[in-house]
Amino acid sequence: MVPPEHSTGPAHEIGTYWRQLVRNWAAGRNLRIVTDTDSVSLQCDIEETGRLLTVRFMTTKRLLVAFVTDGNFLRHDQLAVAAAASNAWNTEQLNPMLSVWDVRGPRPCLAGVCDLPLTCRIAQADFDALASDWVERARQMFTRCHQVFQL
Fold this sequence. Notes:
- This protein is of the alpha+beta class.
- 37% of the residues lie in helices and 30% in strands.
- The strands form two sheets. It has a six-stranded antiparallel beta sheet. It has a two-stranded antiparallel sheet with strand order 1-8.
- Strand 3 and strand 4 (51-59) form a beta hairpin.
- The mean pLDDT is 91.
């Protein structure tokens, strides 16, 4: 995150303005958004895999969470490979982001998670840079999972 003395524009508290920040960021990239009562979702292409990346922004009591998936559901025989892929990515990046979600459910998947405290303040330009970085890392992550691990 950019230090406040280097940010551009007024800083907005994430807890109050997260929807506006996400909508403005998506609009600036011509991304289609879908809003419901609890979240704002958008999709972008992962050209290398032919899949769509879905980013769902939502809040918990303390965090703004960006939940990212490529829509690929894992078969039960892929769970160990997916866990190994997650471990490899997280170790190499030194910033844990990837995990296997809903392992016991009928449709487990690989998912990336990024978050910010709701109490933090950020300017639109800084949020745009951060959200774009999250999406770019997710693209790289899912491309690698597809190309290297056949997931």
